[in-house]
Amino acid sequence: MQNKVPIIILSDNKQTRSVLELYLSAFEYFEVADEFPEYLELFDNISSCDKSILIVDLSYDADTKLAFISDVTQNIRNCRVLAVSDNPSVDLIVRAIRSGAKEFLPLPLIKTEFVETIIKLNESLYSVPKKNTRCKIISVFSNKGGIGKTSIASNLALELAKITKENVALLDLNFQLGDITTFMDLKPSFNISYMLENLDKMNDDFLLSTMEKYRQTNLYVLADPPFFKQAADILPEHITKLFSMLKKTFSYIVVDAESSFDAKNIAALTESDLIFLVTVANLPALRNAQRCLELFERLGFDCNKTQILLNRYMENDEVSIDDVENVMGRKIYWKIPNNYFTMMSSINKGIPVSDINPDSNVAKSYRGLALHLTDSIYRDSLAKKYENILK
Ligand SMILES: Nc1ncnc2c1ncn2[C@@H]1O[C@H](COP(=O)(O)OP(=O)(O)O)[C@@H](O)[C@H]1O
Ligand SMILES: [Mg+2]
Q1: 98 & 160 share domain
Q2: Quick count: other Cβ atoms within 10 Å of Cβ 191?
Q3: 336 ligand 1 Cβ < 6 A
């Protein structure tokens, strides 16, 4: 028989605690742990448990409790957290889930819902963790070279891996002219061609061992093929197949797309959930970007799917943000500051800016972009999941 799983309740409200204890008394395989006056003591107690469930009431002093949830979930593997609150909002739910809580319930609790949630949390303590986000494919595109695509794709992918701790794939689709491996100083043993040749044999483990892991992160890189012949053999349907396989393993796929509208690239853009169209604030570049938007429209892409990233942005630029938005007829999704020195030293050393100079304005901007992106994805999925509470 399995040992009883301790459930620790952290609530300032005696009544809430009694209700929880009452509901939990129906289970014979849980035991409610004593109260702990100090966070430190509580933390030590949770660390000493083989497995545990922590219920945190965020109705009062949410900030301290969220920080505690982060501490616990980052440091203790086998503790699942359920957050509850008498004042649920999308903001609070996003913060709770980002801190590491697995589930969120509003107070007062509905018994059946609570019981289901506790059972689910308990099961997750005994099962292999699954990827918890539906895969999002994000392509970074421009029909001109030298605009900052590879810089953005590689730094965004790295930040996504660091923030979400989920598996992120970075794909170089610049067949033959790719430079992600140079940007990240990687010497991959395999490339896209190898993966395509072995698609039928691929499973999770084979896939992850074929891709090049970047340092101690969850970022996996798939490089462009080194020989022209190999690149020429790749067909649009291969790209579609490749994505459908990667989607099973990765939470995010970031694509450094080719600067062209050839069939392979269109296949990649079509598969994408989001396309970042990169431009800079000068008239030729903006005209170019405008033409891309027109083409995206003709390809039937939803206008929410195509978003503008303004690269090398300068505060006192002759062409202002308003000018850019007027010319494009669209809002700018994100702007990345101009920082020639940091970008060059990052490329020359083969170390992404978030590792080489995390306090630089560019690194902060890439991190902000990744956070903004995951936040809106979290918000959408959480808003859907919790729509009953939030009405
Ligand atoms: N935000 C930025 N500030 C200054 N220079 C940048 C910035 N982003 C990219 N660059 C520079 O622009 C050049 C082209 O960048 P790269 O990412 O290789 O573009 P692409 O992949 O579109 O060809 C590189 O020398 C890079 O250092
Ligand atoms: Mg490039």
Answers
A1: no
A2: 24
A3: yes
Whether 391 maps to a domain, the answer reads no
Q: Whose Cα sits closest to atom 10 in ligand 1?
A: 148
Query: Of 113, 129, 145, which residue sits at a domain end?
Result: 129
pLDDT digits (tens, 9 = 90+) for 350-367: 999 999 999 999 999 999
Q: Does 44 share its domain with 159?
A: no
Please choose from 144, 310, 343 the residue to mutate so as to test ligand 1's pocket, defined by most ligand atoms within 8 A of CB: 343
For the chain, the domain total comes to 2
Binding site membership of 335 for ligand 1 (Cβ less than 6 Å): no
Q: Is residue 211 part of a domain?
A: yes
Each residue of 145-162: pLDDT tens digit? 999 999 999 999 999 998
> With left for phi above 0 and alpha for psi between -120 and 50, is residue 11 left, alpha or beta?
beta
Cα(129) to centroid of ligand 1, in Å?
37
Judgement on whether residues 202 and 63 belong to the same structural domain of the protein? no
343 lines ligand 1 (CB under 6 A): yes
154 and 294 assigned to the same domain: yes
pLDDT at 1: 47
CA distance 371 to 333: 13
Domain-ending residue, one of 129, 150, 165: 129
By residue range, what is the domain housing residue 116? 5-129
pLDDT digits (tens, 9 = 90+) for 164-211: 888 999 999 998 788 999 999 999 988 898 888 888 888 888 888 889
